[in-house]
Known about the structure:
Blueprint: H1 9-15, E1 41-42, H2 44-47, E2 59-60, E3 89-90, E4 93-97, H3 105-113, E5 121-125, H4 134-148, E6 152-153, H5 161-172, H6 177-180, H7 198-213, H8 215-231
Amino acid sequence: MSKPEITAMSDADEIERHPCPRCLVEPGSPCRSRSGTVAGTYHTGRFAKVPRLAKLLRAPTPTDRVPERLWRPGTPPPAPIPADTPATDIRVAYARCSHLTQELQSQLDALAAHGIPREKIFAEKVSTRVRVRPKFEAALEGLNAAARKGNHGGRPPVITDDMLHTVLRRRANGESVGDIRPALIIPTGKRKGQHPSLASIYRALAEHEKRQAYPEAVEQAHADFAMLQAST
């Protein structure tokens, strides 16, 4: 039987949220060897702090950290948000099909897979020619009510279109996301001047792939919104 090893990029990210008690590197960096290079594995006292990895015998450093290269400090992860901090990221979703015989569940499942609670998904079966769509208007009213309280739907994108173009172009040339990340600089917001997290880059790539896979759905959503705005 082969020994269990970490395989997901998120495992390495989670390990690196902790300082290493052996090589004393700060959060945001891979472990450092005695010779001053990136260690080939994470030290046990560090990866054991991640409960689901605590029983592993070893935790190899992912190739995008370039083991044996001269070690340099990485970007510290952002501080965790306290649990009692009021949320300002209001996420609602709208799903629609234009005929009663059409299937709607796949849209609901896809939205739920993106972390949107079922009670925040407004769904209906109504023709495109119908101008009054109760569920769509309810979704917009929910966002408007939140905005009146100072909460606004969505969040400023960490990955801009220019940054995404850079990622896509360099990935097409065979570069890894880890290699591309240092060249990306957040232009606005609280993290202005910092590098985006790997999770943000992968999230932007997933959204891009979704837009490429379902262009009709994205176009229809924009058309629905424009029609509603024209009727108000």
